[in-house]
Structure prediction request, 447 residues.
Amino acid sequence: MSAELWNSAAHVLEINWTGDHMVPSRKLYPHQWSWDAAFIAIGLAYVNPTRAWRDLRSLFEAQWPDGRVPHIVFDPATAEADYFPGPGFWDVPAYANRPARGSTGIVQPPMHAIAAWDVYRHASAHGANCAQEARTELEWFYPRLVAQQQYLTGRRNLGGGGLASIVHPWESGLDNSPAWDEAMANVPADLSLLTTYQRRDLNNADAAHRPTDLDYSRYVGLVLSYRAERYDDHDLLDRHAFAVECPSFNSILASAELALAQIAGELGLSAEAAAHRERAQRITAAIVKRLWNARTGTFHALDVKTGKLSPAHCVSGLMPLMLPDLPAAAVESIMAEAKSEKFGISELPAPSYDRTAPDFDTKRYWRGPLWINVNWLLRRGLLVHGFRDEAEDLRTAMVRLVHRNGHFEYFHPETGEGLGAPTFSWTAALSLDLLADRSVPAYARAA
Prediction:
């Protein structure tokens, strides 16, 4: 099984390589996505470290002057009519020294420092030439990764409590998660927008699997609102209809600081390394203070505009397990949630949403189906806190799932059937990492 899966995964990454960057899939996602690039680079480094670095560089060449890394970097070879919302719709400001490729004005989870460090570890094992290349790449990426973190912990600290807010569900990477339902209910919905701005995702995907038109009209409306202010974050909480602190996004934010501590140490920047570790601890403490619900015993998304925690039990609430400084009681409670009938990590990986919820949907995107990337992060958390048997069970379940069903975008949470885009890049890339079975870096392990 291992050789067959390895070869099929490497083939997916070959056919999705454009010569400059990787696309998630050729038809449904013909551009470069931000956190996809990070997950892809981690696996791609095993078979082609030079491409892994190039893919990440291609993304960061579109970094904004304020430090934000856009959630999509558009391929100019793809026509505006072939993907919506394309660069013409986003109409981002023309900053000095920006590359020719356009981008969106929003972000995605900052997985990139984690990816850069993992690519460095994997690439260095390929020999002296790759090791030297990897060192050069770390030096190039470090200040850019720091700027990304500073943007998220500064301008996006909309709630003032030390966490980054997302201002669009797409920024979470978990687009139509039930975690946003209550906050999204307060966003005006105008279905006529979908007459002016026509969806094109349904040309290549089953409507029953994708976000609803009501959701999509709100997504478009939020972009138009942010675009009207030229994507300026000043007083954004007052001006914008959606601002949420996501436990998954902020857990990745803290983990990125830990990765930056390791990178800074490798570059001989000891004071900076210590500062990154301290920031990771502060973000962890803020996650516990602001997003923990003692009654439910898990983490929930916080609507910053209303001060209310979402009642939904989503896989995002398990992601703080990644953090080595998470209090022992919270670790124990997350493990109970992960093993409960809500998520039941056993024969199949964890679904994206509570299996017992009345609105659990086995096919609609982030409202039930299971995804390899968040389960990969969950496995990382299991290893961080020493749950090696559970981590191995989850690794085996993910490998078996992909081997049996293919490198799909996501999977049916009961049958394991592949759903969404086939030949999906991050599923292939993370399969390589799971087969290689490198344990989590020492810096991220609990003491």
